[in-house]
Request: fold
Amino acid sequence: MSSTATAAPAKHDPIPLGQGYMGVGYLPDGQAFRPDTKQLRLDAQPEVTVKANPLGIDVSKWQGSINWTSVRGAGIEFAWMKATEGLTYKDPNFNSNYPNAYYAGVIRGAYHFARPDVSGGAAQATFFAGNGGGWSRDNLTLPGVLDIEGTCYGYSQASMRQWILDFYNTYKSRTGRDVVIYTSPSWWNTCTGGWTGMSTRSPLWVAHWTTATNPTIPAGFPYWTVWQYSSTGSVSGISGAVDRDRFGGDRSRLLALANNTP
Reply:
C-alpha cells in the first residue's frame, strides 16, 4: 500500500484495543479497521541506500517470530518495537523482541501506541515507562516513542496538545529522556494545528511512505530525526512485509540519541 503525506488521517472505526501498530492510521483506504495484512509490492521501485544514514525497522506482534541475528546481518542497525497500547495492553512479542534484538547488536527501543480515548497522557506514559519504555545508557537502547496517529479522538487541537505534553512530561520524569514522537504530517497538522511546542523537546519520527529522497514533515518541526519511508519492506529474518526506516544522521548521531550525549 502507499499513501501521500497530505492525505487526511484515515477515518475508521475505533481500533480494537491491542491492534494498533505504526502506520495503521496512515492507510489511505482505512474506512474500517482491518488487521495488518500488508503484502510485499514486487513492482516497487528499488530502495535508495544512503550509507551515511543507518537503516532500521519497526515491528509489533504482526511480524510474528523474528530472527534478529539475520535482521542485523541484513544491515539493519536500529529498531523500535511495540511495547504497550493505551492503559492496559502489552504487546505479546515485546518480551522476546526487546532482548533478542539487543543480543544481536541491534540498537533498539520501545514504542507506545497512544489511545487518547482511554485515558490522559500522563497515565499512559507511566504505563509505558513501567512496561518496556525504560532507558539505560548502554550503546544499544533508544529512548521510547509516542506513536500518535489515526483520528483526533474527539479532542480539540488545544486539548490534544495538552495530552501530548502530559505524556512527554511524565515520560521524561520517569526515564530522564525526551520521548520521540512518531506521526504523519496530516495527523499533526490536523489534530494539533501544526503545533511548534514539541520541536525543541522531542525528536521527530515522520511517517511518509514514498520513494522520494526526503519526506514531507509536519508543520511545527524544523527537521526529521527518523523517517518511516515504506510499509512494504522486506528484511531477512522477518516473514512478510515490515516497515522500513532511515535515521537522519550517521551512526555516531544514532549512538548519541541512544546514549543521550551531545
Notes: Helices lie at 68-73, 94-103, 121-129, 157-175, 185-191, 251-259. Confidence is low (pLDDT under 50) at residues 1-12, 28-50. The two ends are 38 Å apart (CA to CA). The longest strand covers residues 76-85.
